[in-house]
Design a protein that fits this description.
Radius of gyration of chain B: 20 Å
Largest sheet of chain A: none
Oligomer: heterodimer
CATH superfamily of chain A: ACP-like
Order of helices and strands of chain B: EHEHEHHHEHHHEHEHEHEHEHEHHEEEEE
Shape of chain B: globular
Order of helices and strands of chain A: HHHH
CATH superfamily of the largest domain in chain B: Thiolase/Chalcone synthase
Structural class of chain B: alpha/beta
CATH topology of the largest domain in chain B: Peroxisomal Thiolase, Chain A, domain 1
CATH architecture of the largest domain in chain B: 3-Layer(aba) Sandwich
Number of strands of chain A: 0
Number of helices of chain B: 15
Largest sheet of chain B: 6 strands, mixed
Number of domains of chain B: 2
Largest interface: A-B, 14 and 12 residues
Number of helices of chain A: 4
Number of strands of chain B: 15
Number of domains of chain A: 1
Structural class of chain A: mainly alpha
CATH class of the largest domain in chain B: Alpha Beta
Chain lengths: 81, 397
Amino acid sequence: MNSKEVKEIVNEFLIEEFELEDSQLLPEALMKDDLDIESLDFVDIAVIIEKEFSIKVTSEDIEKIIKLEDLYNYIIDHTQN
Amino acid sequence: MGIYSTIGYNLDEVTNSLYNGKSGIVFDQSRKDLGFRSALTGSIKRPKLKGVLSRRMRVGLPEQGEYAYIATMEALNNAGIDEDFLDKNEVGILYGNDSSSTAVIEAADIVREKKNTTLIGSASIFQSMNSTITMNLSVILKLKGINFTISGACASGSHSIGLGYTMIKQGLQDRIICGGAQEINALSMCNFDALNAFSVREESPEQASRPFDRDRDGLVPSGGAATVIIESYEAAKKRGAPILGEIIGYGFSSNGEHISVPNVEGPVRSLENALKDANLRPEEIDYLNAHATSTPVGDLNEAKAIYEVFNKGRIPVSSTKGMTGHEMWMGGASEIIYSMLMAQNSFIAPNINFTNPDEYSGKLNIITETKKSKIDTFISNSFGFGGTNSSLVVRML
């Protein structure tokens, strides 16, 4: 899976499930402050990542995701391994 | 007041259904497919809250939490209480709820199959607990007062109002959101179906719930949510609230006998305690909304209790469960609203499907057709498993 496909899937679930606007989904957007995604929401993001990409996300991994691009990169790195 | 029920999604629709004796009961094939003995149930649509509530507020609500949200918003709106008022004043919530099955079942299914708790997600725990209604609504509405759930089986909604009344009477709170909510999904009813407690009159769903009728063969499960805003008279008057009626009596008791078979003495004490608290004689009550769920023993024993307490049964009686089915955790609150709507519109709703009396119901004054009637004061019964009983007396203003 290439990075474009990963971004598309992630953006789609953020828009659909988290009711975010496409225009908000900038790579440098801060998950918490810009996208209003709180710790409980990360639990649901982990579910989606596991279902969509078959990656088992740990809470230690989640803590390192600060910006939206961190989320993209995390998935890209783990799908390539 | 606010309501979301199988006979209407707001007070106007419900008033109309009560007046016309409309049934909310259907045959649900999915229950037969699951091996249920009875596929009868109340039918209700899930409200759409996407775009109404933020995702975080929405996802923690189970089915009956959605109903409770809609009912509560209608009640707050009718009471003239808005977001700003809730933010600046101490408003509490005491709500009746005694199960929340779907999230529990789904979480267990995921863990058994996947051996992975992460996949349960974040919302399940908040949907799973009995306190789901009060925990969610208190956050959504930013409530600052008393906040917990009453689990008193099929008297939960009634006890919630009774306890709210008690707290206000003691001066502990000025206003409290009270009510009851009941899930209606098939899986939440499978263990109840196992008791053979449900009517199997599947060929005629609208005639299946027959409180007090000689040929009743069991209850029909149902659900929804009902909310009343109760407030001290002084606080209501001070803010110019529309005052609909006054709760003047709360009687309660425990049978102290069988877990599922009701007796006569417990309900008698509950009724007598409510009358004593209201400082009224039986003949001063204009209408009794019965608990009668259409079960053989429950209706029989309630009929005996009413006969004993109310001067050989002269009081006009109806059980609205002929229309609604048994709304369980919600019923004690919804039936206060049904009775209020009757009183506001000067009629007694019919006890539908009461065709032939039995030995005891024949001695009561059961109203079978919609009757024009002035109701100044009414009493409403709710009884539950474990022998918990609650009776509330309301006087119209």
